[in-house]
Give the backbone structure.
Amino acid sequence: MSKELPGIILMFVLTLALAVPLGKYIARMYSGERSWTDKIFNPVERLFFRLSGIDPHKEMNWKEHMKHMLIINLVWFLSGMLVLMTQQYLPLNPDGNPNMSADLAFNTSISFVVNCNLQHYSGETGLSYLSQLFLMFLQFVSAGTGMAAAALLFNALKTRTTEKLGNFYDYFLKSCTRILLPLSVIVALVLLFNGTPMTFAGKDTITNLQGDTVQVSTGPAAAFIAIKHIGTNGGGFFGANAAHPFENPNYLTNMVLMMAQMIVPFAMIFALGYYLKRKKFAWVVFSVMTIGFLMLVIPNILMETRGNPLSAHMGIDMSKGAMEGKETRFGAAATGFWSIVTTVISTGSVNGMHDSTMPLSGMNELIAMMVNCFYGGCGVGILNFFIFIILAVFISGLMVGRTPEFMGKKIEAREMKIAMIVALLHPLLILAGTALAMALPQYTASTLSNPGFHGFSQALYEYTSSAANNGSGFEGLGDNTPWWNISTGIVLLLSRFLPIIGPVAIAGSLAAKKYTPESAGTLKTDSGTFGLMLFAVIAIVAALSFFPALTLGPIAEFFSLK
Amino acid sequence: MTREHRNELLRSKGISNGERNASLFSGALVATALKQSFIKLNPKSMFRNPVMFTVEIGTLIMLLVCIYIATGAKDQGSFSYNLVVFLILLLTLLFANFAEAIAEARGKAQANSLRKTREETPAKKVELVGEIFMNEVHIVPSSSLRKGDLFICEAGDIIPIDGEIIEGLASIDESAITGESAPVIREAGGDKSSVTGGTKVLSDKIKVKVTTEPGESFLDKMIALVEGASRQKTPNEIALTILLAGFTLVFIIVCTTLKPFADYANTPITIAAFISLFVCLIPTTIGGLLSAIGIAGMDRALRANVITKSGKAVETAGDIDVLLLDKTGTITIGNRKATHFYPSKGIDEQHFLKCTVLSSMADETPEGKSIIELAAIDPATYQVADPHFIKFTAETKSSGINIGTDRIRKGAYDAIRDMVQKAGNTFPEDTLEQIKTISSKGGTPLVVAENDKVLGVIELQDIIKAGIRERFDRLRKMGVKTVMVTGDNPLTAKFIAEKAGVDDYIAEARPEDKMNYIRKEQESGKLVAMMGDGTNDAPALAQADVGVAMNSGTQAAKEAGNMVDLDNDPTKLIEIVEIGKQLLMTRGTLTTFSIANDVAKYFAIVPALFITFIPALQGLNIMRLHSPESAILSAVIFNAVIIPLLIPLALKGVAYKPVGASALLRRNLLIYGLGGVIIPFIGIKLIDLVVSLFL
């Protein structure tokens, strides 16, 4: 433990140190300023735009942005279903994996399009290499979609009055080619050198120490795993996700993969600051998120390294922490840390079983996804956080005696309406989903691997993970049934696109408003006080919505653990 | 001006002090409000307030549960427990209604006391005879007057209704409205032609044209604004209602989904517990007080003797960025006063003084009077034969007196200079220097000449009001920029602006300059407030985001603005801005308080819901409440009583301190946010201690 903690802290600080300049680079890129990467990427992008016939200089209003986003996402979703349901007949299937069932293909295709990657299958047996590659493509474009929406938000918050907010495809393509692709290449190389396979050959056969021959799945994994983290997707190449020795071979890759999922969400915050020339505001946002993150991650590390009292009663050594469901090569502290990183950021890749973490650790993982904006996913983290900014600005604006305004634009009934709908949607999907699952035990009771409070937590986790577009699970839940595939698929769709459209609509409406310059009476949003207010709003809204559900799940389990 | 004086006057008219300066809960008001609290239970009127409407539905369900138990059902707990929950919920509704009703009653009482002064006054109506108006006067009750009618008022008459003088001039005692005892002059034509019902003519006779239909005066409109029926929600109120409705929906989701969750965990929850949890969690505190806060804002404006034409105007006032203030009367006391005499080189001082006094003998302007005052010489001591007074005209820009062949003139520098130079004389160097000095000090030089020869110069100075600088400092801290509007030359304007501490000034202002300034500021996104009285102010008043017309001003000005100040006090704008800020702050702080309360309520109710069937959750009962029933009752009781406890705050408003936005937020967050988390823990625990005695 004494050696584990400094490693985590160093990794976090290093990520932050890299994220600040990356944020500056992203801001310059979205502003259309020249940079040294132009030479490499301009020809590529020009080729793409010439082939597709898209004019990247045609500015769009927010509605056009969203229209194009939805259309292109629909195309991806349908092609995803097509590939998954016909993979048996398509090339690159050396292991001869069968076609996916319709409900599973529906769930899988949606969940990759929406950057969630709730996997109700195992990659080894469920997918051909072509399908894996197509899903890898979806991991790029879904992250790019979120970032393009965030770029629109940045643009909308500039101090001027306009309806023209840049071009969706321009933002989208730049996000993919200039950020996601280069970062993924770096991560993939690290993985490759540490033993992750990158091949199109079929299963390998090895002889183990006992002399048995074992079939081992391989595949083009290194490339896939890189974007899975850079794009905060989280869908594993193999069923065991980042706990699998090929996906995450050693301590070094474990650290690199954690950095990989944090870097873009961190950098987007600073990009906001550089883009709007409000660096202090970016730091306030980052601090609020980090306080929330630390309040979740510190207890988790402590609880996981302290061990399980029930296991201790049975005479099991707890000196290394609660190691059930964890990999010895990572240890309890790093796994506890990962469990929160992957849930605050909507990655959802796991390097240990969340189902086996301590009850309150499990609660913190749930809370991380219920809040869904402490860093958050690629681009969408900022969008989710923006809703809370609007709510906090509204209440605190009133408290200083002015009708509320953010970045010089008045927050009025229309903005509040949209913000409330988006804020409502998250608890609605999670609680109503779980309530339905509980009310219809004929579909769900047999899929819960635990009775009692933990079984309830499993269902709650599944819907929370879907609504947060996270993709991790309290596995043990037998989730490849039509009930889970379809219900979570619907939750995924609603919880992806409405929380993108909502903040974008608010931003679009703010952009079209008159700009009011700041005065001494204006609420300063780049102050610690406002940060505190923001944190309080997030904490209270999340706590208020989910407290009763958490009481019947992890909290009841915790108090029963005597 | 004194409030006592005004109250005395009102008493003499049979209006009690209580009605005018009502304490928060005076007997008659409470009685009306109590009655209204029950009337307002009508679902049709409750529907306007989504938060309280859901409480009403909850209350009805509890009533049904009580009936259900009375018919013999066993699974919902005891009858008395359910009945108590029902009664507390009913009380919650009544408290919320009472808050709104008392605010309405206060506002109405305030407006009525102003209106009473003008009801049923005999009016001397001028009747139409044939095709022309003859001076055939009939005495009719004021209520029968219609817009366009003419009436006559003579010394001693009470003006029956609002109108505009079309003929004559009169001195009028407006103390019934303004509290100011000094009579004012109102005359036909010009900007001081408006008269208000209820005021008294002291001298002379005027002919007045009625400008409003009965029931449509500003005061009537204001009363309608306060009353429920025509009250419109302001934009900010709508946005806040959306927020509160959103929170209510969240808790509908939370409470509905809890049912299958609890069934899964085999912990049946009674309907009373569900409804209590729901009512406690939704923001009933702010929901119950929201409309009272809005009404109280308008009421506070009325207490400051400002009639607002919409609630929105009060709200906007809180956002004002730029304040346009007329110099005269606002920043400086009335008019300029003579402060020094400077004879030119070689002129005998006594002679200069004599000529100065003589030239001002017939000058009725305050400046003229102040010259004689300063000289301290009675003009009558100079025996002058056959004086011929020359009146001031805009062309000559001078006035004076002719005594025999001697021509004494007093006037602006350029006018006298032209006159002197035309006669071939030179303008003395030292006086020229003196004039420059006076101008640079913000004074106005008046040059005196005798027979086209300069005698010397009189210095007139503006007297800046005491304490005005501090008020501007306060405004600056609020983030409001002050702009002085004056007809003075730029040099004088600059000097006074600096001395008074305003941020900017418009010198040599014409009416269209005001308009242009407002437009320019608005284009850069600022909100502008101004005060005006003249007809030529009307476009600017209409253009400004908050336009306050003086009651003495013309009808056009009053129609154009969105507020009317009965006191004709130009510094009133400052008060209005603070009233607007208070209104918004009260909403914000009570919302924060209301939502912060939920933390403690959760810790009271959630363990109570489950403890019976999941004893392990006793660990969550951190307040150590006596039993599930007492916990639930304590939470709903706290939820109910906090509403009446906060009514005084809602009506008075949260105090505004101009300490900067961040400091203000910190302060309010500490008091209402942190306080909102802690207080219910204490309150619920205390109530539980009492409730547990009965269980």
Remarks:
- Residues 324 and 493 of chain A are 34 Å apart (CA to CA).
